[in-house]
Every structure is written in C-alpha cells, then in structure tokens.
Amino acid sequence: MPETDRTRLIASATRRGLGRRVVNPPLERGSTLLSDRAEDMRDASLGPVYGLDGLAPQRALADALAEMEGACRTLLAPSGLSALTTPLLALTRAGDEVVASDAIYGPSRRFLTRFLATRGVTTRFHAPGASPEEIAGFIGPATRLILIESPASLTFEMMDVAALSAVARERGALTVMDNTWAAGLAFKPLQHGVDVSVQAVTKYVAGHSDVLLGAMSVADPTIARALANAVEDLGLHVSPDDAWLALRGLRTLPVRLQAHEKAALRVAEWLERRPEVARVLYPPLPGSEGHPLWSRDYSGAAGLMGVVMRDWDEARAQAFMNRLTLFGLGYSWGGFESLITHETGQLSLRARPPRLEGALLRLHVGLEDPHDLIADLSRAFTE
Ligand SMILES: Cc1ncc(COP(=O)(O)O)c(C=O)c1O
C-alpha cells in the first residue's frame, strides 16, 4: 500500500482493473444523460441521472480530495467562498449563534454579518489567536457552530485546532475550518476533530490561477447528507472542465507545495533581516508567533505570508510594489506565480483592528527561483 499523500495522489490515477484507458478521466460535458429504457431513467446505480449530479471529472476530483482529507465524502462548490458559505447556511438556523475569529477571510465575515445576520443567525468574534479556553467563554447555549481559520487571513495567527474542536464538541457546537492555507495536505482538519474541512481549491490544488472552485470534506455521514442536501437545494454546480483542471493540479500538489514552502522560508528569512521590515507574519518562520503550533501540527506550508513594514505608509508600499518585476500585482494565491498585494482598509473592518508598525504587504512566493525573487525585492528596496 502506498504510504504518503505524494504517492497516494498519483496511485489513484494508475490503479488497475479499469481496462485500457487514458490516465485522466474523460472530459465529459453535459446536462442531459440518456438511458436505454424508460425504467432506467431514475436509476442512480447506473450513474448520474442529470448533469447536476456530477460527471466523471467532478466525481474523480471529489473522490481524490476525500481520500486526501480522510473524509467519508467531499462535496464540490463553485468557489472557495461558496464552499464556506454552504456549511454556514446548511448547519445553522434562525436563533443560532456562530463564533469566529476577528481575523477570518473578509468575504466569510461579510456573509456572517450581512447575509446570515439578517436571517436571525448572529456571530460573536473572538480575538485572533485566542486560546481554546478563551474561545470557550464565547460559547453559549445558542452557539451552533465555530468557524475556524488557521492561519488567519492577513495577520496569520494560528489556532490550536484540536483543542478548540474538543471544546466545541463538549459544548455541542459544530466546527467548520477554512484550511485553504494548508491545501488539505499540510494539515488535516478531520484528523484533529473538525467537522467540516473547507478549502478554496482555486488556490494550491488547482495551482495555476485558472480555476475557481471549492471543496467541503466531512467524516460524519449525517453532516455529509446535510451538506449534500444544501448543494442540491441551492443548485450548486462545478463545471467538468474546472474539475478536470483541478484534478490535474491535485496530482502534483505535494511537490509544488514543498517547493512553495522551501522558497517562501528563504524569502521570509531574508525579509526578516531587512531594516525596512518590522515583522514577517509566517508561522513556519522560527521565532514567529505562530511557529510553536505550526511545528506541532503541520507537515508543510503554503507560500503565503504577511510583511509588516516599519513606518511605511500606503504611498511608499505602492511605490515599492511598482518597482518589483517578478511579483505580479494581483489577488488570490496558490498559483505557480509570485504575487504581492497590500492591505487597504480590510483590517479596519475588524472589531479590534490590530496596531501595526506600518503598511502590511501580502506576498505569495511562487515557484520561481528564490534567488531571483530575493534579487527583485532587494533591488526594489534600494532603487
Ligand atoms: C483564506 C481564504 N479562504 C477562502 C478564499 C475563497 O476562495 P475563492 O476565491 O475560490 O472564492 C480565499 C480567497 O482568497 C482565501 O484567501
């Protein structure tokens, strides 16, 4: 039996007993599926009945993700955001409370405070990086769900996910984790007691900045059924072309993620020594705030980090970004390319915005040679 994810993710493509075939599933496209006999038309044991049920590429991707996540079932959604909003919607009802970090991904926060709040589900926000004991103080009789994101968006605080999941379970609350940073590979939420492991497949699994897609992985069949019903009721659909591309990305995810981590650590260590930099927010960096939890729980890392500049204002950050030649100016992350963005007001939406030493940059270290990336950064600092 193959031992590691790196082997398993490829071995699932080459398994025997399926007859002569191409390596990857056929790229089927279709809304309508035809049957030979009227009696067969609704028989799901003969395969999908309608395009919304998912064709070969969507099924193969969901199965491969479920295997990687250790899930009984993985459900696909058309974006990472919809993979987060679907369980929040499916698992709560009016009168329930959600508990989440003040540093969760902005659009997740918007869904909680704009969509769910007007439908009777309220959210309590705890300080980023709070301990499970502190978060326990936010759990009341109405708390139905805890939304975990670790490391957090923009400021990269880590959470003790296993301890928090245990507290939630004890108090009768479910846990949903946005695990996009670890790509479902470097950290396995379901093994740490999380109920729903979510990731934006858009990022590292797809890996080439050409697909938007999300996944929800679940170990408990009852929760899987609730999510599958929501996907069906909402009519969520992922295109076979996008699923096919994501499956192709998934086969090489372990080697790409390792390369991102290795290069990002070099860049982070170099940045940390620059006088212009106040702090590098990257949990794999020894001595950083999140490092103890990262080294205890994670087998790898993403190439995404925050960089707090010493006394820089927005104009200085923008001038620096404009001088870079190898870092694309664009949102998202997880593709092969290096990217840089700067924070422009998202932190002020938090209940307690952090006080930083200066402008906050977000770097995605791609698969270029880290020597070249460092030379580019160095030139942009000194020019
Ligand atoms: C932490 C995190 N979660 C979820 C998402 C949403 O992914 P998508 O763009 O596929 O909706 C993003 C996108 O930037 C993200 O950064």
Automatic annotation (TrEMBL):
<dbReference type="InterPro" id="IPR000277">
    <property type="entry name" value="Cys/Met-Metab_PyrdxlP-dep_enz"/>
</dbReference>
<protein>
    <submittedName>
        <fullName>Cystathionine beta-lyase</fullName>
        <ecNumber>4.4.1.13</ecNumber>
    </submittedName>
</protein>
<dbReference type="Pfam" id="PF01053">
    <property type="entry name" value="Cys_Met_Meta_PP"/>
</dbReference>
<dbReference type="InterPro" id="IPR015421">
    <property type="entry name" value="PyrdxlP-dep_Trfase_major"/>
</dbReference>
<comment type="similarity">
    <text>Belongs to the trans-sulfuration enzymes family.</text>
</comment>
<keyword id="KW-0663">Pyridoxal phosphate</keyword>
<dbReference type="InterPro" id="IPR006233">
    <property type="entry name" value="Cys_b_lyase_bac"/>
</dbReference>
<dbReference type="GO" id="GO:0047804">
    <property type="term" value="F:cysteine-S-conjugate beta-lyase activity"/>
</dbReference>
<dbReference type="InterPro" id="IPR015424">
    <property type="entry name" value="PyrdxlP-dep_Trfase"/>
</dbReference>
<dbReference type="InterPro" id="IPR015422">
    <property type="entry name" value="PyrdxlP-dep_Trfase_small"/>
</dbReference>
<keyword id="KW-0456">Lyase</keyword>
